Structures
1.
Amino acid sequence: MSEQLVDDFCSYLATRGHRPRTRHQYAAAAAHFLGWLGGQPPDRQQIDAQAVHAFLHEHLPACRCAPPNSKHRKSVRAALNRLLAMGGEARLRPRSPPSSPDIEAMVARFDAYLLTVCGLADATRWYRRRYARAFLAAQFGDGSVTVGRITADALIGFVTEQARGKRPGSVGVLADSLRSFLRFLQLEGELLADLTGAVPTPPHWSLAPLPPGLSEVELARFWDAFDRATALGRRDYAMARCLADLGLRCQEVAALRLDDIDWRTGVVHLVPGKSRRTAQLPLPPSTGAAVADYLRHGRPTTPSRAIFVQHRAPVGEAAAKTTVRGAIRRAFARADLPWSGTHILRHTAAARMVRGGSSLKLVADVLRHRSIDTTAIYAKVNLPELARVALPWPGRSL
């Protein structure tokens, strides 16, 4: 039975476009898992996420099975995720540290509040759940949750401990998450005192730093890092153009569909994303040429309506935001540029617009900022204009 299942698994991987070497590695991991599963009690021989989790975290670290068997948890997890997908099971994701049922129940209620009351995006909710869970686990451990025991000292101690080694921006996300959780507890009537003011705020001076961006020389090196003679290079170059010319975010590039570009009028239609607003942006010639080149000469034949698709298994499926981020990160490495995230290309797009004479209102519209105050930081990159309005230093000249 297990041999037939492994054969079916190999056929499944082949139809998804996995390479022979990957199919061999995944099949070996599946055979290892099925062999272990066959030795379990009859009531525990179901191929599901629970069995995979037990195999990864209980059997694999102490495995003494005959070689060759991979003990690299990440690669084995990837193989068994494919096995679960073949059977219709949800893929297994790395789990957060286990917490008590009381904590999980409260975090679930908090998440429902974030979704239905606050209307937050999935990524924002993930961070807030993460820090709420971590705080409750630090405060109550495996015991029951007693909201009345939450004190200002506990909040200060938790933030201080968690802030070690983190950048101010990350600490700010932590602090915002805790304040949101405290407001939820107050709304539910479980927390009588307002403790949001006790959550420490990391030092942050608005508009103080210069926005990071690439110089024209660095940008030229970045463009040269793409091999546009290959299909994959054409795709990655077109995605990079969308980031650096239009100021899009990774998830917005991944979400682009064939119907989103009006080639006759040269307009890109963006579906609501982080800003929760539809938007129309002009399509620069350089961006349009890169996307058209990819669609005509690089994109695999696929029924998907996504503009950017996977070139490795599963071939033809829509690219994810991690696909976009990975492509840009590899290009930065080839160009020997320091990596600080894809947002540097969004900053670069804004800075180039300001230097080209665009108004801050126009830049704010392109970047889809809710407030022009957010865009005001880019005024600092236009040094010639700033020099014209700079006042002389007071005092007599020497």
2.
Amino acid sequence: MVKKSPTKPPAEHLRESPAHDSVRLEALFASIGEGVIATDETGAITRMNQMALDLLGLTRADVMGKHFLSTIISVHDNGHPLDVFERPIVKAFQTGKTISARTLYQQKNGALLPVHITVAPIIFRGRPIGAIEVFRDLTTEIEADKLKSDFISIASHQLRTPLSAINMYTSMLRDGLAGEVSKEQLPYLQTILTSVERMNVLIDTLLNITRIESGGIVIKPRMARVDNLAREMLTEFVPAARAKSIDLTSQLPETMEPISTDTLLIREICANLLNNAIKYTPQGGRVHFELSETPKEVLWKVTDTGYGIPENAQKNIFLKFFRAENITNKDVSGTGLGLYLIKNIAESLGGELWFESTENVGSTFHFSLPKEILRS
């Protein structure tokens, strides 16, 4: 009997050598289409792909073995360097968590590059032994956003003139200034006026959003009592609540100390929350407005017994143009821009906006502002 020699395993099943693994890892690192920088536990740069070098105008000799914070310069809009503890890579090392942020990187020639950064710490046996940063150039996105904002701003302003004419002449027709109007014609004229008003509100909202997104909204603080502001606003919404037989109630402090804040922006937030609560609450429901304060914060709360927000829609509720399906099915008018707008306004004031909601039960929206920011 002829003894057969052992069969060799197929080449694809052979274990690859460490050297082969290293070459493949290096090729993978180099082929990533965004800038990638790796550091060791001391913050020294150990790897940097060609995309990162090209974006920053650097060479390998400029970076390899150098400390990340002194080599990769991050600055504010005014050109001043970020504080060390503001840097995402420092936060990643401190927290052990992935950190994302937008910033400006200084290129070798001194030009500033807008970037979005994501830094992940490399954890081994419970401690960070390095970090990986991925960043991408935001120049094209920012230019596109500016073009979009410019277009919206120009188009919105151009719409004002014809809408004003439509509003004026329709009002004149409704009031009989061009001859008697029949009872059958009046509802049609009123529908035109209502639609014009909705268009004007939409234009105002779009303009406010473009200002926020371009950093164009300037906060103009003045001393004011927000409890008096709340009383004024509640009075304005009584007719809308009464038209739907909604029980509009409130709980306000008897008096509050004046604070330094932008009352127009505060009014925008509260008006939007009250308007939404009344709009999305069925006939005969309840809306409750509450204002309170703690030693550190001023708190607003609007609770309704409305349609509520489905659980699967809640993560998207502050996105631009988003409207939950249960609302669109009921044909309630809206643009999906209001909450996006006031979320940005709240954050620009240093505050927070959040909510709890149960479908077919109702919603509660909260708005808070820290007193140390509000007080003069």
3.
Amino acid sequence: MSTPSEKAEIVVLGSGVSGLTTALTLLENGYDVRIIAREHFNNTVSANAAAVWFPYKALPVEKVVKWSNLSYVKFKELAGIPESGVSIIPFRIIEPADETPFWLDALPKEAEMSRRNITVLGSDFISYSCSIPLIETHIYLPFLHDKFLENGGTIQYQEIKNIKRLAKQHPVINCTGLGSRELCNDKELYPIHGQTLKIKSTKNTIGLAFDKFPNEPDNELAYFIPRSDCTILGGSAFKNVESKAIDEDLTQRIIDRCLLLDPELETEHIISSHVGLRPGRTQIRLEQDPEASIIHNYGHGGAGFTVSWGCAAEVLTLVQNL
């Protein structure tokens, strides 16, 4: 690939958080960048994400830790820009008492981790308290989109059916997420179904995530995330479920679990319900394609926002080294 001074236009496929972040990173490092996307960012799975910094359902661990740490630092910087939609909030994460979670290694020291032993429904757990970035998607995605355009980037809405043909004309960064199942015939990709609901904001709510709720299925979890416009409750992580239909029984189970953890949540009035299909994969694919002028950056599972800046930095390195 060419150096920035040669003004090679790079095409980034996809307008979700990975596509926008990667495109902006390349643009800010001197490259001409055009996003080609099948849909507007408002219609991507990123728009429905309950986005807090937390590495979830993403591998390999060593790389996810590094990328998550880099992203945390960038989000902390963005938290100083009010219009970014990023803030640093107190958060609690409940984990089994007999496990040491890998995400602890991704937290910078300034996150001020503390822990205490708790019992939930007769089982022993550790409650970790720390400060992590909250990314309000309805503010943050337009922020990235507008910043990209203001810095000279261009966006074209079109469905690409043949990525290798496109790569003969331009270097391509593939950030199509689940779309790479068809685009790249990637059989390692699969959907991870996530259902959430928005309720009225409750004063002084501290966000919480509880992955392994006692006596509940492994693919159902409990979390609530306070935002400026609402509180998001979740959730689910059903592997290989393609349906985007709202499951009302699941909604009630989510509400029941969250109320058990915080009875003050105002769950009487549901603002809206959402289903998103996260791009799960055996591990994140971030590499140069051996057969074409393509760098792949997809398969981020439930950590798309969490690894976004770290992955974009690695894409930049790959571009610079070619």
